[in-house]
Write a structure and sequence with these properties.
about 180 residues; alpha+beta; Aminopeptidase; seven-stranded mixed sheet; two-stranded antiparallel ribbon; 6 helices
Length: about 180
Amino acid sequence: MLFATIVTTEDELLQIHRLNQTNYRQHVSAEERDKEGFVSWFYPMDLLQKTQAAAPHVIVKDDDKVVGYALTLLKEEAAFHKDLQAMFDNLSTVSYNDKLLAEYNIYCMGQICIDKPWRGKGVFSMLYQHHKLLNSGKFDMLITEISPSNPRSQKAHEKVGFKTIYTYTDANDEWNVVAWDWRK
């Protein structure tokens, strides 16, 4: 039976790490990327442990197996990862509803991934609904970035309620910054 929860064990972090490695852009064929999507950032175990210590990651499990994850990243965690620092630096200059994002109480979903056999079974929505349940009273909105070369992810985020608020290009890719505004 599928259920959403937060990470509480080292084994769950190891399962996230394995899913991350399996679905990392550089480990997936071009055909697979086009059909199934991919994750853009590699998360070594030490980074998963550091970010988990700051704010719990959301997972969906099928019994004891982690079948999907959505990483929670706070502004304070930017020092842990150079790409995360670059993302938060960029977000500090983005306006949303006539205010800089930096003026809102936000956090980022650092990556979402669902194991292949569980795709299309509602896991994506379960992950985000659990984020909202845990954090909508503490934060104004949830922000993430999506590569336009991953249209499956863009469409899934829009279905949950995210809206593209900004697009930019860095050394790695082009990014759509999407926000799920919980104040509405």
